[in-house]
Amino acid sequence: MVLMAIIGELGSGKTLSLTYMAFRNWLKGKAIYSNYKLNFPHTRVKNIKQIDKMREGFFAGDELWLWLDSRASRKKVNIVVSSILAKSRKRGIHISYTTQSFRQIDIRIRNITDFFGIPKLSPDERYCTFHMVSNPGYERIRSFRFPTQPFFKLYDTAEEIDPDLEMDDEDDED
Asked: Who contacts 145 (Cβ-Cβ below 8 Å, separation ≥6)?
């Protein structure tokens, strides 16, 4: 199980790449968890209890820095979520998350992140090239390219992530 940060500027293909990876994991029969709406079966995660329940699957965390902001590292939500994510290997969860800058993420998560993903959309947005790099070391692990059209349909490119992770026990699912 790994923890991967997908890093890039606005419009570089971060959420597109995250959705591509979530869909590929779903095709392999894995449970999919996400903090944004996907147009294929998944469990929507909106609160701490739901994060704590995640087992055996893939978590797609779009703009995860909104929940784990490095400038709010002492907030209770940061501490609790960081603790849960640090246990991802024992729980069989592969976690990938997007952020514009790695420094936006709480240092506890930065320290356990295994890989960086760096997407780049083609000028006509028909393809996305994805480079996977190790952390630390910055060694290229692999690169691949995928067509964008089938994956743009699997999420709402205009959806805004709710910055307030709920601390209560609501179990909303989409």
From this structure: 127, 128, 129, 130
The pTM of this model reads 0.84
State both tokens at 112: 């356990």
Q: DSSP secondary-structure letter at 62?
A: T
What is the topology classification, in CATH, of domain 3-152? Rossmann fold (3.40.50)
Nearest 5°: phi and psi at 49? -60, -40
SS3 at position 117: strand
Strand-pair partners of 134: 115
Cis amide prior to 123 (ω within 30 degrees)? no
Contacts of 90 (CB under 8 A, 6+ apart): none
Per-domain boundaries in the chain: 3-152
Confidence of residue 109 (pLDDT cuts 50, 70, 90): confident
pLDDT digits (tens, 9 = 90+) for 80-100: 666 666 676 778 889 899 988
Answer whether the bond into residue 136 is a cis peptide, omega within 30°.
yes
- Which tokens in the block code for residue 14? 């971060």
What is residue 92's DSSP assignment? T
Query: What is the pLDDT averaged over residues 103-129?
Result: 88
Q: Indicate the burial class of 145 (C-beta count within 10 angstroms; 0-12, 13-18, 19 or more).
A: exposed
Q: How far apart are CA 48 and CA 44, in angstroms?
A: 12
Pairing of strands 57-61, 93-99: parallel
